[in-house]
Structure to design on (203 residues):
């Protein structure tokens, strides 16, 4: 297991195979206020690549190409926020995507615990530390602890998606989940355009 730190972009030779786990770190949770600071990815091989934007997102052509490659499935946890952040900051529309939080809400109706830490503990027997969650991701340099935290958020997503996909199939909700995942890039567009706090399907 290794954590690779890169400034500004992924290395040109990064090969995710058919699926890549993705997460982001920002200065906060407001799309129009808080900038993108970190994007972390893993090909599911036990390694994580942490891309740091110390001065705000730049060109990042390799990262953008990966996010827009429709041959590569992007696995997120709470994809609604991450997909919107990537679209707002890098100008990319991530497709195709799946979201372990949505999958858990649809398949695990026996609980209201759908956070990443809960899923890793309940489904994989892995305990995640969230100590660095609110640290300063906009700092000029990242600490070893920040890099390790960022990596931990993507290292288990492949395994989680495998377990959750099985649960969705078991409960007969895989097609419903797929429709939700397909809509996520459009939900991100709505959020960026100002409808994030409005239920457009309500009366």
């Amino acid at each position: 297991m290794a954590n690779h730190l890169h400034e500004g972009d992924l290395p040109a030779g990064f090969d995710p195979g058919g699926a890549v786990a993705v997460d982001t770190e920002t200065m906060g949770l407001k799309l129009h206020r808080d900038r993108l600071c970190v994007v972390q990815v893993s090909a599911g091989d036990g390694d994580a690549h942490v891309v740091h934007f110390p001065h705000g997102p730049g060109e990042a052509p390799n990262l953008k190409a990966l996010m827009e490659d429709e041959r590569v499935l992007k696995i997120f946890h709470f994809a609604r926020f991450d997909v919107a952040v990537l679209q707002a900051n890098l100008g990319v529309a991530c497709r195709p995507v799946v979201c372990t939080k949505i999958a858990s809400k649809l398949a695990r109706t026996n609980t209201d615990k759908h956070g990443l830490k809960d899923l890793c503990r309940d489904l994989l027997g892995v305990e995640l530390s969230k100590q660095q969650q609110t640290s300063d991701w906009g700092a000029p340099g990242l600490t070893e602890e920040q890099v390790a935290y960022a990596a931990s958020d993507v290292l288990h997503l492949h395994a989680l998606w495998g377990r959750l996909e099985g649960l969705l199939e078991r409960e007969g909700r895989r097609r419903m989940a797929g429709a939700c995942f397909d809509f996520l890039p459009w939900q991100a567009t709505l959020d960026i355009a100002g409808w994030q706090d409005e239920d457009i399907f309500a009366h």
Summary: The CA atoms of residues 27 and 34 lie 5 Å apart. The mean pLDDT is 95. The helical segments are 61-68, 79-90, 100-107, 116-124, 144-155, 157-170, 174-195.
